Amino acid sequence: MEHYPKLERFEQPNVITTTADLVFNWARSRSIFPFTYGLACCAIEMLSSGFARFDIARFGWEVFRPTPRQCDLMIVAGTVNEKMAPVLKRLYDQMSEPKWVISMGACATSGGPFYDGYNVVNGVDKIVPVDVYIPGCPPRPEALFQGILELQKKIQQMSFVAPRIDDADERVATTPAEKQGRGA
Amino acid sequence: MSIAIGAVKLAIDDLGARLGAELGADLADLRVQEPDTLVARVDRRRLRAVAAQLKGLAEIAYDSCNFVAAVDHVTHLETVYHLYSYATNSYIELHVEIDRDNPVCDTICDLYPAADWHEREAWDMMGVRFDGHPDLRRILLKDDWIGHPLRKDYVDLLENHPNV
Amino acid sequence: MSDVFTSEAPDSAVRLAMERVKAAQSVSDLEGLELGTVIVNMGPQHPSTHGVLRLVVTLDGEVIRDVIPVIGYLHRCKEKLAEKRTYFQYIPIVDRTEYVAGMNCEWGYVRTVEKLAGIQPTRRAEFIRVIVAELMRIASHLVAIGTFVADLAPLGTAMAFYTFRDRERVLDLLEQVSGGRMMFNYFRFGGVRYDLPDGWVEKCREFLDYFPPQIVEYENLVNDNAIFLQRTIGKGVLTQQDVVDYAITGPNARASGVAHDLRRTRPYSVYPELDFEVCLGKHGDVYDRYQVRIDEMRESLRIIRQALAMLPQGPVQVGTLRPPYVITPPPGACYTAQENPRGEYGTYIVSDGSRYPYRLKFRDPCFVNLQVFPKLLKGVKIADAIAISGSMDLVLGGIDR
Q1: ipTM, 2 decimals?
Q2: Which of A42, B12, B52, C218 to pair with B144, CA 20 to 30 A apart?
Q3: What is the Cα–Cα distance from C381 to B82, expressed in whole angstroms?
Q4: What's the rounded Cα separation, in Å, for the pair A12 and B57?
Q5: Which residues of B touch A (CB under 8 A)?
Q6: pTM for this model (two decimals)
Q7: Which domain holds residue A127?
């Protein structure tokens, strides 16, 4: 859970925190601004899900913003390769907390059909922490919506009380590169 | 000026005969393949001269470069040039054999601007250096990539992968 | 330049741009760039570059003086992967080259292998291939037109909503035939995987009747809009000499008046038996490229109608029920070219007689079309540059492979 330095941290959950949780989580999960990070073929399915037939606006998620500063969700749709990886990390760092990542498609999850390519990073979770994985090549817009619903369930579990694992003060190494001390 | 495709109606065998007469021994093993393609081998040192001559032919000029590919036969490398003539609506495929230990070839990108990026890709992927190319940098891979991936003896080094 | 402020270490493309500015005193078209030159990245993440294309742009105020395109952010090593997959295993990967026009890409690859191996597809399969490829061409042009008009305005996605709505209809038809909405894995050596399901021909004919008024609707949306006309007429002119020099193919070339359509100049499959026109433009500007795509959709409808009428009965695959899963073409090299929605899509395969291709090279139309960008975008304002690059219809999957 994010640090709110101005708010007093509650040690135990009580009726105030649970009510606040309910309101904030409901607002957060129903009006996410996704980041248009379509890299490859899955981007076209992401676009299709935003248009009239598969309407992503019924979830409240239709405001795709092109700049990471204004977004809270990064949908990585497509293959990430060695040239793109630093760019991805940089854009993720530019997003402000709370932020989530959906890894859409087989390529972003694990490298996909190109897993043995020399230039392909086998999964975007080697670079950024991922909250929801959506398999498929490409996943149908309905599959993307199931991922959205899963993420909404995950956001509902956020709380003012429990600390989040990658706290801003005590930074825990999350990606393999950071664990080896190389830093991405 | 209007480009008319196929304005000069010439059977492919006659076209082959005419090219054989004009360029002579430079086009070795000239033969007809499929309905509209001529295939020939060109010596590496004569490549620029042949390309300039093909571009300068009067009405049947080969004025456009379709692609440039590099192939790794284990004993040697080979670059394949595919040139197109709008006037006769025909193609010519030139195979140039290149030494594997010193893979150098002449550039044709000042004659055919479309060959520019193809030559950069051949350098990037196969390690064929093009003499006289204005900007021979890697095009598809990172600038500090080590190795040329499409070679048959390519070994993928860990230095190329900071994200594994 | 005495003061150079950079926000990060410059890479080779930015260094090249900086060197060109430093040498500007001797280069006439970069004159007067000493003070206030800004070298900025458009991309690789950008809403209007249609994928992960990076343009290193040297700006003088709002005017672009120099563009260096940097690609490779989607390089997925397809040509190397071909050497590790059998010919049959590689078919779904070819789909993903130009992911907006998967059927056409598959057809190009399958045709090359068939030519190498000497396999002749069945006649019914040829007609089905034509129908499916033309439907894919319609879907691809709908994406191109929709995203192009969406680029012209920050929230101008109105056209995109209409085109994507109709694209869903086409994808429904393709899904009924092949099982996939965007990645099909439908072509096989010697034919296609599935025969047309019952009732598909009627549904396709319904679509052919439904679609022409929709095209009229698209034209009514933008063709009379004064702002659209101002932003597109006369911008980004590709002369015929440019088309020849840079080997530009597809609607971009036809908009400049060069009648280069491989279905006519280098006919393949059953196209010689079908009657359609090659759509040409006159000026080669952005408006003509948009108009040529609209006209080509109409011609595709015509082709599909004829092919449906001429569809013969018969098998859709050569040989027994099981398709050739492992084929070993004889040693040799072969190149075939296809008229993709974006231009000449060629596949050059060198075979050494084994189950795996020895070398596979794609001649991708967008890769070749992108080379003209430095020439095309010199001296234009940024807003026009967006319109021009949208009209050139790039798909990065094909450029980077």
Answers
A1: 0.92
A2: A42
A3: 36
A4: 87
A5: 140-142, 145, 149, 154, 156, 160-164
A6: 0.89
A7: 33-179
